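step=encode ok
step=design start
structure_in=
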């Protein structure tokens, strides 16, 4: 396989990764889950108490 064929596939994967967003699910003012979304598609649910969940929440708290 030539590099030319690999290059567009890598660029497409990078573009898909850029479309990922996170949504906090709240109940009574507390974050109960974090949804990882790609457009309208739900990719996975992240526990806000996990290390990854804490890192994501910290990024959004410092950005706001």
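sequence_out=
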């Amino acid at each position: 396989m030539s590099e030319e064929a690999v290059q567009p596939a890598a660029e497409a994967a990078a573009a898909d990764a850029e479309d990922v967003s996170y949504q906090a699910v709240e109940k009574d003012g507390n974050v109960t889950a974090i949804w990882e979304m790609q457009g309208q598609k739900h990719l996975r649910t992240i526990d806000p108490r996990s290390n990854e969940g804490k890192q994501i929440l910290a990024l959004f708290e410092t950005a706001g």
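step=design ok
step=annotate ok -> The first helix runs from residue 3 to 18.
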